[in-house]
Amino acid sequence: MSGENSTRTKALDVGLLTLRTAVGATLFAHGAQKLAGWFNGPGIDGTAAGMEKMGFRPAKLSAVAAGVSEAAGGLVALGAGTRVASAAGAAAMLAAADVHRPNGFFSQNGGLEFPAVLGVASAALALTGPGRYSVDGLIGHRLEQERVGVLALATATVGAAGVLYRRKNATAGS
């Protein structure tokens, strides 16, 4: 049984590495678009203009917060500060999913599918941690305790809910 558990543990760690790399790299790329205009992105001023149109106030601060939360995906991919960085990504994707919600589920119609899947995957990483094959695993980082992931995810979710509440009230008054 010990050999089977060892194989299962290694498979789990490789699975978390795979998930972290895909989710983290995707989030990082979107954050880099927002913050620096990389990958044909709008940069911070273009992102702020878009945030303004979507009802996020203050728009520039919202753009920076979204960009930094997504750019933290680079940390997720490396497995550094994974639980906190993943919680930030989950919160950003909660807000993005809410923006796309009126268009239904499927992404080909501008729906919430893409941000919802990234958000759920980010939340899962906040809860599970990075696995052994990570910077956190190598250095035994204290932020990788389960309670940190739960607390970070709860805090990020409450923060995102507050932002969405303000957005809803701002757009209702427009």
Query: Can you write the helix and strand succession as a string?
Result: HHHHHHHH
Rg from C-alpha positions? 17 Å
Tally of helical runs: 8
Overall form: elongated
Mean pLDDT, all residues: 92
Structural category:
mainly alpha
> What is the percentage of strand-forming residues?
under 5%
Number of distinct beta strands: 0
Share in helix: over 70%
How would you characterize this protein structure?
The chain has 174 residues and is mostly helical. It has a domain at 18-26 and 74-172. The protein is built from eight helices and no strands. It has helices at 2-36, 43-53, 59-71, 73-78, 82-100, 113-128, 135-139, 146-172. α1 (2-36) packs across α2. The N and C termini lie far apart (63 Å). The relative contact order is 0.15. The model has no long low-confidence stretch (mean pLDDT 92).
Topology of this protein?
Layout: H1 2-36, H2 43-53, H3 59-71, H4 73-78, H5 82-100, H6 113-128, H7 135-139, H8 146-172
EC number: 1.-.-.-
Protein name: Oxidoreductase MhqP
InterPro entries: DoxX, DoxX-like_oxidoreductase
